[in-house]
Amino acid sequence: MSATQLAVLARTSDPHTMLRRFLALDAAVTGANGLVYLLGSGPVGRFLGIDSGLLLGLGAFLVAYGVGVGVLASRSRPRALAVSVVVEANLLWAAVSCAAPGLWLSPSTAGAVWTVLQAITVAGFALLQYAASKARQGSSA
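Structure tokens predicted for Integral membrane protein:
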């Protein structure tokens, strides 16, 4: 992804602001998803065909993760190591999400589709964050 494409998506050409915006978007979407899992684990679990206890645990994790990513996004210059951890965690989440329906979950059709769609979304966050981090490193050189 080129710096120009990133600038269009982030609506800024400043690499630090780009990275912070992509982190903030990740934090907001992840936190909202976690809240839905926490507050609606019963009905959401039935719709997705996923155990409500698992959704409660995932919801708590996602809310905490979203808060952590949000704190990172609030920094004027997020540390490179912390950004790398977020990118790698997002890639791991995406990979596990793609594998879970075939390996240990038996979701409904809606749950299988949702699991793959959210994996694609999280992988997209990782890609945007990685590219913005590289653009930021390039601007510091």
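The two ends are 19 Å apart (CA to CA).
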